[in-house]
Design goal:
about 230 residues; globular; single chain
Length: about 230
């Protein structure tokens, strides 16, 4: 049986005076891949940032593995076993690829070793001595994902990891996500590339104007095509 790892109940979020999330409700179970779908500006990225405490203000309830996190600062939330891969990647350009990998502190036991990382992302092994700023966009994205795997995080928040990347890199990232699920990790991702997200996710939430308007499992995906086309244009 699946065990609930994350639950958002009535979550509101603000940037300054801008009220972005209007009562988000969702759950993620251990070992699942869950995708947030929606148009740009719908509130998907803000949902991830709210979980991590990276918004100006938030209210409601965010339960992470049984701990209420809505009042915690980001570093305390990370130590509940979360890893966040932001859309901007945050690579240290002057550090080598391997130095970037070695930098993050552990947030939980069981972080992946370099050999495991390099087996999953052979490109990074080839470029391990290269400065982060010399890596291609795809290699930087692989590095951003790999870096949080070093920390021991069990719940990964991934924001648009396929955006603007070559198909071969997107395929490699898809294989990595499947491998992580097989290892028992849990993934909540925001993804605009529906063709990338559709075969990976166990469940989907559709967000519009800061609210969940639809949720469904992978088995219902075909039946939801009309609604998705209307809401997302896919």
């Amino acid at each position: 049986m699946s065990t609930e790892l994350l639950r958002l109940s009535g979550v509101h979020a603000w940037y300054g005076e801008s009220h972005i999330l209007h009562g988000i409700d969702l759950t993620v179970n251990k070992g699942e891949v869950v995708t947030l779908l929606g148009r740009n500006g719908s509130g998907r990225t803000t949902t991830l940032k709210s979980i991590m405490g990276l918004v100006g203000r938030r209210s409601g309830s965010i339960m992470i593995n049984g701990t209420e996190a809505v009042g915690l600062p980001p570093h305390r939330i990370a130590h509940l076993g979360l890893g966040y891969c932001p859309e901007e990647r945050g690579i240290f350009t002057s550090l080598s690829c391997e130095e970037n990998l070695m930098l993050p502190p552990p947030v939980a036991s069981g972080g992946m070793g370099l050999d495991e990382i390099y087996a999953m992302f052979p490109n990074l092994k080839e470029r391990r001595a290269s400065p982060g700023g010399r890596l291609s966009g795809g290699e930087q994205q692989m590095l951003a994902v790999a870096r949080i795997l070093r920390t021991g995080a069990k719940l990964l928040l991934l924001d648009e990891i396929s955006e603007g990347l070559a198909p071969v890199i997107v395929q490699a990232l898809g294989r990595a996500i499947r491998t992580l699920r097989e290892k028992g990790l849990t993934v909540l991702m925001v993804e605009q590339n529906f063709r990338f997200a559709a075969p990976l996710a166990d469940r989907f939430y559709v967000i519009e104007h800061g609210q969940v308007i639809e949720s469904f499992g992978a088995a219902e995906l075909q039946a939801k095509q009309g609604m998705l086309h209307e809401v997302l244009g896919v």
